[in-house]
């Protein structure tokens, strides 16, 4: 009885307060589970309450704004874990040409459009893992979004990202000329420390390194930085409160990145049982970027649905399965930019296609990413006190994952985004 009274007092305090919006969907996904006939109250920029509709209905005051959302599912705003807002699909313009031939002003203009498309697809937060030659232009893009000048998700940005000298791209030019690179070259003790600090000083929220790249003797992927170099990068970034994440697709590149202390591995195509075990033991998440590999194979001529899967795809399916079975935590990120911005849901569909349950896929793009990116005190779940970043879709994506594309409403910081 005492509980009931306390509960009622709490509820009425909440509901008497003004400027409450009551969202009344068919069900909510709170970041971890589905709750049928639940509702969410938002006040200003925060979530005020999540509870069953039968309780809220009895206590709601007349001045509350009630939003009926028939046949809809309400979720936390999604978190894209791997995007490049300064890139656009490689079948439109090859990556080399984007880096070398497109003006930065043009790339920024595109990035503005990409940011809006990302938000309108229901992604209220995004981790941008490198401008790929567009210098520190993500810093200004992020500020323009935060200042409300343009529409876009909240950004966690990596700025230029770090590569070992000679390893990255564009490549295969005459050795006599110096070709601008898609990320910043740095090596050895003093240089690495200085460049990590410089990226942080200019606005990087996260340090991204390329732990391997296609610079092997026959053009195959091979490791770049030594473990000592990676440890130094991680330590330097960590002392300023920044996590380090690594592009890695070879087993040795992954091993060095894990032992060096990175928090997420991007791609991870050629992990082995030993590597998956090492990831579990060191609590490193895998961001598998399934959609990027799928897109690139199609750009190279694979007629998906009509032709047999290329070997690369079959191997990726297998390694993804092995990683999940080994207990590696999967975070969500498609490497958007390789394919179209706004089509971020493609990675969710592919996670399911590769064997994940739809509800587990939804978790990766909400609570798991929020935890992995250290932003769970603000976003990623429907919980009192978190920011009212919300996505409302028609249907039930926990059953049919592609329903996540049926975007009806998006709220960012409690404000309804104009979707037209
Ligand atoms: Zn990427």
From TrEMBL:
Its EC number is 3.5.4.31. It comes from Emticicia aquatica. PANTHER family: ALPHA-D-RIBOSE 1-METHYLPHOSPHONATE 5-TRIPHOSPHATE DIPHOSPHATASE. SUPFAM superfamilies: Composite domain of metallo-dependent hydrolases, Metallo-dependent hydrolases. Keywords: Hydrolase. One of its GO terms (molecular function) is 5'-methylthioadenosine deaminase activity. This is 5'-deoxyadenosine deaminase. Residues 73-415 form the Amidohydrolase-related domain.
């Amino acid at each position: 009885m005492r509980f009931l009274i306390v509960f009622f007092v709490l509820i009425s305090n909440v509901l008497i307060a003004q400027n409450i919006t009551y969202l009344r969907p068919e069900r909510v996904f709170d970041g971890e589970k589905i709750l049928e006939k639940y509702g969410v109250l938002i006040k200003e920029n925060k979530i005020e309450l999540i509870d069953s509709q039968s309780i809220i209905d009895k206590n709601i005051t007349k001045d509350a704004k009630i939003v009926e959302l028939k046949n809809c599912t309400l979720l936390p705003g999604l978190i894209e874990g791997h995007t490049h807002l300064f890139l656009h699909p490689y079948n439109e313009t090859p990556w080399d040409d984007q880096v070398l031939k497109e003006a930065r002003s043009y790339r920024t203009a595109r990035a503005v459009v990409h940011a809006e498309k990302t938000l309108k697809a229901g992604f209220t937060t995004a981790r941008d893992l490198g401008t790929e030659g567009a210098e520190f232009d993500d810093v200004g893009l992020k500020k323009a979004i935060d200042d409300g000048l343009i529409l876009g998700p909240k950004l966690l940005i990596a700025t230029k990202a770090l590569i070992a000298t000679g390893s990255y791209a564009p490549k295969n030019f005459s050795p006599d000329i110096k070709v601008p690179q898609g990320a910043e070259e740095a090596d050895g003790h003093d240089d690495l420390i200085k460049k990590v600090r410089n990226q942080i000083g200019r606005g990087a929220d996260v340090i991204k390194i390329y732990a391997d790249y296609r610079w092997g003797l026959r053009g195959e992927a091979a490791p770049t930085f030594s473990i000592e170099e990676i440890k130094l990068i991680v330590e330097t970034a960590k002392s300023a409160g920044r996590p380090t994440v690594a592009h890695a697709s070879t087993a040795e590149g992954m091993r060095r990145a894990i032992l060096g202390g990175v928090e997420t591995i991007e791609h991870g195509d050629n992990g082995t049982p030993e590597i998956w075990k090492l990831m579990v033991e060191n609590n490193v998440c895998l961001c598998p970027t399934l959609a990027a590999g799928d897109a690139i194979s199609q750009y190279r001529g694979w007629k998906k649905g009509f032709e047999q899967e290329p070997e690369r795809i079959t191997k990726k399916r297998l390694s993804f399965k092995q990683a999940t079975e080994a207990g590696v935590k999967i975070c969500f990120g498609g490497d958007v930019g390789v394919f179209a911005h706004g089509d971020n849901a493609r990675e969710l569909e592919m996670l399911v296609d590769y064997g994940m349950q739809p509800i587990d896929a939804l978790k990766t793009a909400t609570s798991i990413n929020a935890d992995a990116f250290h932003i769970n005190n603000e976003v990623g779940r429907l919980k009192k006190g978190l920011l009212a970043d919300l996505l409302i879709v028609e249907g039930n994506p926990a059953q049919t994952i592609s329903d996540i594309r049926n975007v009806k409403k998006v709220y960012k910081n409690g404000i309804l985004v104009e979707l037209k």
